[in-house]
Amino acid sequence: MTDNPLEAVEALVAADTHGGASLTLFALMKTLSSDNGQYLFLLNKLRDLSPEQRELAYALMERSTQADHPDAAWRATVERIESLIRNG
After folding, report:
1. Could you tell me the CA-to-CA distances from 7 to 3, 37, 40, 51, 73 in Å, in that order?
2. How far apart are CA 44 and CA 52, in angstroms?
3. What was the pLDDT predicted at 41?
4. Furthest-apart CA atoms within the chain: distance in Å
5. At what angle do helices 51-63 and 20-33 cross, to 10 degrees?
6. Which residues contact 88 (CB under 8 A, 6 or more apart)?
């Protein structure tokens, strides 16, 4: 797995566009993209992820604390993942 959580989530989704982990991590990304996102994601969904996938979720959360969040890379990744899920 890559050190870049955005690349890692995109690869996971590309490998299984409608899998539970793919959809859960994408939902987390969408939630973290919204100003009021803290109300949109139930943290108990993290239980559905493997330990490695939870580490990826935590990396996304950490990345979302950056001052320029969501940055262009984040927004572009969300758009690509949306397309993968829609067309997958």
Report:
1. 8, 21, 23, 18, 10
2. 16
3. 84
4. 33
5. 10
6. 13, 17, 18
CA 2 from centre of chain: 14
* pTM score: 0.89
- Residue range 24-34: average pLDDT? 93
- Cite the DSSP H helix spans in 16-50: 20-33
Name the residue with higher pLDDT: 65 or 41. 65
What local confidence, expressed as pLDDT, does residue 46 receive? 95
Q: Cα–Cα distance between 86 and 37 in angstroms, integer? A: 21
Q: Which two tokens stand for residue 85?
A: 């899920």
25 within 8 A of 60, measured Cβ to Cβ: yes
Rounded to an integer, what distance in angstroms lies between the CA atom of residue 36 and that of residue 56?
22
H/E element, 8:
helix 5-15
What is the token pair recorded at 43?
Answer: 């943290």
Mean residue pLDDT across the chain: 92
* Per-residue tokens: 56: 């990826």
